[in-house]
Structure formats: structure tokens, C-alpha cells
Specification:
By secondary structure, the protein is of the alpha+beta class. It contains one helix and five strands; from the N terminus they run αβββββ. The protein has a domain of about 60 residues: Single Sheet (S-adenosyl-L-methionine-dependent methyltransferases), CATH 2.20.130. It has a five-stranded antiparallel β-sheet with strand order 1-2-3-4-5, with no helix packed on it.
């Protein structure tokens, strides 16, 4: 038992002594400066229209209205979105399959 323990310890010690010292490393060059941050012209903008009654929040991307959030004074907010990409929200009079109804938030966690 002792011989096995001495043999195992000598193998571990020999492995540690057999390692070569690390080579001399050169220092790393300085990293390049981070890219300049633009003024955020492409960021989505949210504008809250001052109005009595319903509170309307517009979300714009690249100058186009993408989404409207309408919050009634005593109701649950609903959303109108521009899914066609033309920048205008249109109302459809017929019940065709392309109709887009307001999406209501049923429950939030």
C-alpha cells in the first residue's frame, strides 16, 4: 500500500517538475478605440401627443410611424401598428382576411 502511494506521489511530482517554464511573452498592443456613437438618428423615437382624454404614444423609426399605443383614461391600452410599411395607419371597412384589429394587453406579469 505504501509503495503504491509513494509511486503515485512521485509520478505526480515528476509531472510537475517536467513542465517547461512559460516563454517570454510580449505585451499586447493597446486595443483600438471604440467606434464613435452616432447621435441616434436611427433609434426609434417615442412621442406622446398632448391630448385630452386618450393618451396616444407614437413610435417612429426613420421618420415613419410604426406603432401607436392608445391609453384611454379609464381602460386598458391597445396598440395600432403599421404592418405594410407605408407609414400610415389605414382603416379597412370590410372584413377581409387582411384586417388588422387593435391588439389588447390581456394580462401583464
Amino acid at each position: 500500500m505504501r509503495r503504491t502511494l509513494v509511486y503515485a506521489l512521485s509520478v505526480v511530482a515528476a509531472g510537475a517538475l517536467a513542465q517547461q517554464p512559460p516563454p517570454k511573452l510580449e505585451p499586447l498592443p493597446e486595443p483600438p478605440p471604440p467606434p464613435l456613437i452616432r447621435d441616434g438618428a436611427d433609434d426609434p423615437r417615442v412621442r406622446i401627443a398632448p391630448q385630452e382624454g386618450d393618451r396616444v404614444e407614437e413610435m417612429r423609426e426613420n421618420g415613419r410611424v410604426v406603432m401607436l399605443k392608445v391609453t384611454p383614461p379609464n381602460g386598458i391600452p391597445y396598440y395600432l401598428m403599421d404592418l405594410t410599411g407605408n407609414g400610415t395607419l389605414t382603416r379597412r371597412e370590410s372584413l377581409d382576411p387582411g384586417i388588422r384589429v387593435p391588439m389588447w394587453t390581456i394580462k401583464t406579469f
